[in-house]
UniProtKB/TrEMBL annotation:
<feature type="domain" description="N-acetyltransferase">
    <location>
        <begin position="177"/>
        <end position="261"/>
    </location>
</feature>
<feature type="region of interest" description="Disordered">
    <location>
        <begin position="50"/>
        <end position="72"/>
    </location>
</feature>
<dbReference type="InterPro" id="IPR016181">
    <property type="entry name" value="Acyl_CoA_acyltransferase"/>
</dbReference>
<dbReference type="InterPro" id="IPR000182">
    <property type="entry name" value="GNAT_dom"/>
</dbReference>
<dbReference type="GO" id="GO:0016747">
    <property type="term" value="F:acyltransferase activity, transferring groups other than amino-acyl groups"/>
</dbReference>
<feature type="compositionally biased region" description="Pro residues">
    <location>
        <begin position="55"/>
        <end position="66"/>
    </location>
</feature>
<protein>
    <recommendedName>
        <fullName>N-acetyltransferase domain-containing protein</fullName>
    </recommendedName>
</protein>
<dbReference type="Pfam" id="PF00583">
    <property type="entry name" value="Acetyltransf_1"/>
</dbReference>
Length: 305
């Protein structure tokens, strides 16, 4: 688990029910053929406001914008600006060539929720040292949480990453779910009960980051963080980003520090009485980007996540 968020803090307080039986309903699908995941051929770039997942046309004239996929129900709460923001989220794509393959990051679609639930549930169970039979119970809680968070779009979004191997380990052409991260852009998307130390509700917040265990230490966590920052730069009026990191998680703490995050507050030791791990609240001022090409100037940290 690469980052601590409100969901993981809540799950830490639950009792350990060892009698629950695990099923395959929420198990993360490690390798699968994802027809909607198309990897571009260029080495690195960030796409925004693109109209589809199809390969780019040689024509210089851009095609018309695609309609929203699985749009939220019509509501007077959704303004024209909200609808435009939803379109921006649907069109956001972040691509990075890694040493061992390629990584594509975009906003989670509705039909991809169950596999994201599986990845998060298994990661939370691992971080809390729970037995495998507990994953199913966690899955129900995590899915309810993701449904509630998705209803708050475009004020928050869940990103997922797909990894495609280069064939060195016999995985050429196989696309795997690599990781996920949640991003909140403003106070309308903020959690009602955030973890401590409490971040400002009107500031962007990154949480619930995890990388598929077989794909760790390839720089995927680094690029989930970079993609989150890029999306925040486009979606939020605030450039000050917050996240939590557990004190015991040395590798993520090192990654965040190298990415420019600083510790601004730390849980009191009394938090242990609530059966939660002590956490750092970290903060970063995002730079102003003059062009899309500036978001990937840093090299991935291959040995972190």
């Amino acid at each position: 688990m690469a980052a601590t968020g409100s969901l993981s803090c809540f799950l830490e307080t639950l009792p350990h029910h060892h009698h629950l039986h695990r099923t395959s309903h929420y198990k993360c699908n490690q390798k699968h053929a994802y027809p909607s995941v198309i990897f571009p051929k260029s080495a690195r770039y960030t796409l925004t406001l693109c109209s589809s997942t199809s390969p780019p046309s040689p024509s210089p004239t851009p095609p018309p914008a695609a309609p929203l996929e699985n749009p939220l129900p019509a509501s007077p709460i959704l303004s024209n600006q909200d609808l435009a923001s939803l379109q921006n989220l649907q069109n956001f794509k972040y691509f990075q060539k890694l040493k061992s393959g390629s990584l594509l990051i975009r906003v989670m679609k509705e039909h991809e929720m169950d596999m994201t639930v599986g990845l998060l549930s298994e990661s939370f169970a691992e971080s809390m040292l729970l037995p495998a039979v507990y994953v199913t119970f966690l899955g129900f809680l995590v899915k309810q949480y993701l449904i509630e968070r998705r209803a708050l779009m475009p004020h928050t979004a869940t990103l997922i990453g797909f990894f495609k191997g280069d064939g060195e380990k016999g995985d050429e052409g196989e696309v795997e779910l690599a990781g996920t991260v949640e991003v909140t852009f403003d106070k309308l998307g903020a959690n009602a009960s955030p973890p401590t130390p409490t971040p400002p509700k009107n500031s962007p917040y990154i949480c619930n980051m995890t990388v598929n265990k077989p794909l760790r230490r390839r720089g995927i966590g680094w690029h989930l963080l970079k993609a989150s920052e890029e999306l925040i730069s486009q979606m939020s009026s605030s450039s000050v980003v917050y996240l939590h990191c557990r004190m015991i998680d040395a590798a993520p703490l090192n990654m965040y520090s190298k990415a420019g995050y600083s510790i601004v507050d730390t849980d009191s030791i009394l938090i242990l009485l609530t059966l939660q791990r002590r956490k750092h609240l970290m903060c970063k001022q995002l730079p102003v980007l003059n062009s899309l090409s500036e978001n990937n100037v840093l090299d991935p940290i291959e040995d972190q996540s």
